[in-house]
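# nightly structure sweep
# worker-07 picked up a monomer target from the shared queue
# config: single-sequence mode, recycle default, output format = structure tokens
# input follows
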Amino acid sequence: MADGAPEGATPEVEWLNDAEQQAWRALVTGISIISRQLNSDLLAAHDLSVDDYGILAMLSEATDDRLRFGELANILRVPKAHVTYRFRRLEKQGLVTREVCETDARGAFAVLTPAGRARIETAAPSHVASVRRLVIDNLTAAQLAGLEDAMRAIVDADSAEAPDRF
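# output follows
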């Protein structure tokens, strides 16, 4: 088709032009490279996946090292079931624990243990080094600012669309 749409495509869809397609593919490929390498680096050095690290990091930054499971899922932008699944692995390692919410019998808190605090503090420097190697050091200050602006627009649109999705 002359307009760049795939053969048999629905005409109501506004297909990506060449520049949009190139940007989209670069984004998807970049995210894949970064995610895969960060995960590999964390697993090799600290026996933590990127998801594990995210849970420990968010708990380490929370007041009293604790968050409700739903709040943790919202911060990480993943389903609550995903947090619960990852949490079990971390719990078996003694890095986190679950505490009942005194004011809501149905609720529970995810809590960082001292061992979890030690693990995140040990893992953070090498994680930051990986982030720097994979992203920060490859961008100019202007590119980094543009990246933040672009990603903030996407996050803000998602937040407006479904603020409590998970």
